[in-house]
């Protein structure tokens, strides 16, 4: 499928037969999903909408014809694909070079989105030590970052559980990372 996100927040991810997943990109309003399909390549991606979302489905065959014959449409699809590459570089950079807040935000959003597929809620079942190990930091530093997110109303916590209350704000922390 090919569509444009009108509102909401989505997650494109790869999934392996053993159940492991990795987020490829976070999809935001006014972004195209399925651009590679318009070029004749089926992506090996799944989509999950994290928040209430509205999308406009595009006729893939009509889009393919327009990409092949209309320079403006071709340029728009090329721009979208370039943005996806930039987003992939950004996620690699966040995971390896981002500050603690950025790495925590990405990790929580990724884990919560995976949990939403299973339990229907944006929550993370993990200890602070688990999260610290995941982002390559100490539990104490992780605890401070989590406390700040809780103070801002982005998450709420209970022993061994973190609920994401404001996924858009969490995604904005990651998106703010500039490479």
Lay out the secondary structure.
Blueprint: E1 2-7, E2 10-15, E3 21-27, E4 32-33, H1 35-38, E5 46-49, E6 54-58, H2 60-69, H3 71-97, H4 100-119, E7 123-125, H5 128-135, H6 139-151, E8 155-158, E9 161-164, H7 167-175
Antiparallel strand pairs: 1-4, 1-6, 2-3, 2-5, 7-9, 8-9
Number of strands: 9
- The CATH homologous superfamily of the largest domain corresponds to Jelly Rolls
- Broad structural category: alpha+beta
CATH topology of the largest domain: Jelly Rolls
- Give the neighbour order of strands across the main sheet: 4-1-6
H/E series:
EEEEHEEHHHEHHEEH
Q: What does the largest sheet look like?
A: 3 strands, antiparallel
The appropriate CATH architecture of the largest domain is Sandwich
Oligomer state of the chains in this structure: single chain
Morphology: elongated
**End-to-end separation:** 30 Å
Total of domains: 2
- Discrete helix count: 7
Give the class-level CATH name of the largest domain.
Mainly Beta
Radius of gyration: 17 Å
Mean pLDDT: 87
Strand content: 15-25%
């Amino acid at each position: 499928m090919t569509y444009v996100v009108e509102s909401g927040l989505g997650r494109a991810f790869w999934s392996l037969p053993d159940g492991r997943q990795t987020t490829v990109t976070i999809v935001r309003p006014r972004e195209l999903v399925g651009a590679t399909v318009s070029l004749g390549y089926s992506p090996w991606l799944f989509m999950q909408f994290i928040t209430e979302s509205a999308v406009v489905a595009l006729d893939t065959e009509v889009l393919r014809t327009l990409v092949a014959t209309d320079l403006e449409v071709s340029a728009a699809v090329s721009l979208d694909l370039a943005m996806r590459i930039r987003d992939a570089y950004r996620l690699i950079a966040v995971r390896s070079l981002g500050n603690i807040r950025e790495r925590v935000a990405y990790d929580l959003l990724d884990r919560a989105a995976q949990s939403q597929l299973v339990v229907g809620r944006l929550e993370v079942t993990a200890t602070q030590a688990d999260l610290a190990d995941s982002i390559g930091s100490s539990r104490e530093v992780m605890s401070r970052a989590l406390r700040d997110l809780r103070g801002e109303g982005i998450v709420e916590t209970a022993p061994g559980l973190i609920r994401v209350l404001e996924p858009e704000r969490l995604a904005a922390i990651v998106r703010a990372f500039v490479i």
